[in-house]
Design a protein that fits this description.
The strands form three sheets. The chain has an eight-stranded parallel β-barrel, surrounded by five helices. A two-stranded antiparallel sheet has the order 1-2. By secondary structure, the chain is of the alpha/beta class. It starts with a strand and ends in an 18-residue tail after the last helix. The protein is about 35% helix and about 15% strand.
């Protein structure tokens, strides 16, 4: 497993991180807790040492599962990099909204430490910018926790470059987290060049576009319950679905013909080969979903193949759909 270091910290992490947004909640059709624990254990056994979670994944359930997986098998805490988040809240009815006030952050960190069963968090992100709270206030809150030693590194998720500039007036910034994959590339316009130029580590979430690039989604796939692929993400609905499935098929053909790999391996490798110091977050909830790791490190995508990948995307996907649907409301709009 390839390793990297988070900029300006002593944190060494795997280039692939386990994302737990599919673990703990109903947004992906529910969770089998036993399978979730086994998935985390299997990832650690394969050399993935970065576990990315958040209170917003299952109202804290994902953090509890991460803590259980790490602690019940007596893993050395220093060998696991825990990334979690703050800046979200929810109503009694379970509706999420953004809340990055200083009071909320201080409450959230204590709740997260308890659920995770640890006395520090390696990497602490603000999950979404809160337009009703001054960015300076939010940054000061994280800087206070950083100086206390409760968090070892500071990150922001889904921020603009302008918001990051303001944030850094009150706190150091070690990482940014953005949606980035073959199908969602808006971050290439400004945020990723910004991070690259300033040597800020980038964590790419949705590396397989919520399973679309796994090669396991097909025309008859059904999404149940509150799964956002059923209700919110246009890529999994209507005519968009046909285009994206066709693109996956052609990308899989390219991966097989040129590298003897799967489309999932191609998508992960493509993310890892992007400029800058980056980490690809990969959401899964069953141990067998780790299979694409086998053989991931023994090939590189050459420049001609990179061009051919872009040609497939431009030709097949007539009107690309971004990840905008994932943004939660602020407190005024719940």
């Amino acid at each position: 497993m390839e390793k990297t270091s988070i900029t300006n910290t002593n944190i060494e992490t795997s280039r692939i991180g386990l994302g737990t947004w599919a673990i703990g909640g109903t947004q992906w059709g529910g969770t089998d807790e036993d399978q979730a624990v086994k998935t985390i254990e299997a990832a650690l056994d394969k050399g993935i040492n970065l576990i990315d979670t958040a209170p917003g994944y299952g109202y804290g359930k994902a953090e509890e599962i991460v803590g259980k997986a790490i602690n019940q098998n007596h893993h050395n805490r220093g060998d696991v990099v825990i990334s979690t988040k703050a800046g979200m809240n929810w109503t009694d009815e379970g509706d999420f909204f953004r809340d990055s006030t200083k009071a909320r952050i201080h409450q959230e960190v204590e709740d997260s430490l308890k659920r995770l069963g640890t006395d520090y968090i390696d990497l602490y992100h603000i999950h979404w910018p809160d337009p009703l709270t001054p960015i300076y206030e939010t940054a000061e809150a994280l800087n206070y926790l950083y100086r206390q030693g409760k968090i070892k590194a500071i990150g922001v998720s889904n921020y603009t470059t302008e918001q990051i500039d303001v944030f850094q007036e009150a706190a150091p910034l070690h990482t940014i987290q953005v949606p980035h994959n073959l199908f969602e590339r808006d971050s290439e316009k400004d945020i990723l060049p910004y991070a690259h130029a300033r040597n800020i580590t980038a964590l790419y979430y949705s590396s397989l576009t919520r399973g679309m690039l796994s090669g396991k989604i097909h025309q008859e796939s059904e999404f149940t319950g509150d799964d956002i692929r059923k209700s919110a993400d246009p890529k999994f609905q209507g005519p968009y679905f046909q285009e994206y499935l066709q693109a996956v098929e052609e990308l899989d053909d390219l991966a097989q013909d040129r590298f003897g790999k799967s489309v999932a391996q191609l998508a992960l490798k493509w993310n890892l080969q992007q400029p800058g110091n980056n980490i690809a977050l990969w959401g899964m909830r069953h141990p067998e979903q780790l299979q694409p790791l086998n053989g991931l490190w023994d090939f590189e995508i050459d420049s001609d193949s990179m061009k051919d990948i872009d040609e497939i995307l431009m030709r097949v996907i007539k009107k690309p759909v971004g990840p905008e649907f994932m943004a939660p409301p602020d407190r005024q709009n719940i």
